[in-house]
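Q: Hi! First time doing this. I have a protein sequence and I read that you can turn it into a structure. Is that right? Here it is:
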Amino acid sequence: MSEKKSESESMKLGSEELSSEFQTLVSSDDLRSLNHLQHTILGRLQDSNAVLSHFNDFSQNCFTEISGDMARNTRVLKSIKSDLDYIFLKLR
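A: Yes, that's right. Below is the predicted 3D structure, encoded as structure tokens:
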């Protein structure tokens, strides 16, 4: 039991030493600046996501409105192509 206790104490001391060494590597101002930049980027990404979602909804509504016209025009174009193919076939 005392062996586990001394092992956990040495791990705790090692962790404290390691964390104090990390604190000397990076200044707190740099960390605050990095945190601020990350929050700014997150906000911009969320705004972009909202804009894209709105655009997708708008695009879906527009497609729904014109899909009938597109289908009808496609049928007309296919009919015209068929007629032209027949005419060119007869001309040859």
